[in-house]
Amino acid sequence: MKLKRTVRSVRNYRLYHRYLGLTLALLLIISAVTGILLGWKKNIDWLQPPSEKGVSIEISKFQPIEKLTQAALIAVDSLGLNLSHVDRIEYRPNKGMAKVRFTEGYLEVQVDAVNLEVLSIAKRNSDWIERLHDGSIVSDTFKLISMNFLGIGLFILIFSGLWLYFGPKRIRGLKSKG
């Protein structure tokens, strides 16, 4: 009786494991590929522009946020880009500059924090890759559902995989006793 239950359990788990694995495969492939790319984002300029250096790293000489933002907006306007919504400003005190990032277009403008010179205007491909990685490129609801599905699914795959490994060993042990 115990042998039959164990055999049935292993067969059922094999089925669960197979179909869950097939269902998760696309999400896992996307997550793996984008995760590898994100791991390299600081090393590949196409993924994330390198951080330029400003003229001074003395924080007391840094211009206020309003002026940094204005310099970045003028720079994107001069390129004919209609970007107006700043997502965030990242100060890099050790480089003497700030990165002004816009919500649209994944664009980044690096501005010298002292003299307000535009050091770089570039697309941050790592941002849309990150959004693809976590599912937020579709929507925040999709991100929440897909990441939970992926996490719980991986946990089930690990558990069922362990049972598929140890279950046949247990069956052999029960057969040798019986």
Largest sheet: 4 strands, antiparallel
- The amount of beta strand, in percent, is 5-15%
Indicate the mean pLDDT: 93
Query: What integer value in Å does the Rg equal?
Result: 26 Å
Number of discrete helical segments: 4
Helices and strands: which structural class?
Answer: alpha+beta
Total strand count, please?
4
Strand order of the largest sheet: 1-2-3-4
Question: What's the domain count?
Answer: 2
Order of helices and strands: HHEEEEHH
Helical content (DSSP H or I, runs of 4+): 55-70%
Describe the global form.
elongated
Low-confidence stretches: none
- Distance from N terminus to C terminus (CA atoms, Å) equals 11 Å
Summarize the structure in words.
- With 178 residues, the chain is of the alpha+beta class.
- It folds into 2 domains: 1-24 and 37-47 and 125-178; 49-123, Roll (Nuclear Transport Factor 2, Chain: A), CATH 3.10.450.
- A hairpin with a 4-residue loop joins strand 2 and strand 3.
- 56% of the residues lie in helices and 14% in strands.
- It has helices spanning 2-39, 65-78, 125-134, 140-177, and strands at residues 86-92, 97-102, 107-112, 118-123.
- Helix 1 runs antiparallel to helix 3 (125-134) and helix 1 (2-39) runs antiparallel to helix 4.
- It has a 4-stranded antiparallel beta sheet with strand order 1-2-3-4, with helices on one face.
Defining traits:
56% helix, alpha+beta, 4 strands, 2 domains, 14% strand, 4 helices, Nuclear Transport Factor 2, Chain: A, four-stranded antiparallel sheet, 178 residues, single chain
Quick structural summary:
This protein is 56% helix and 14% strand.
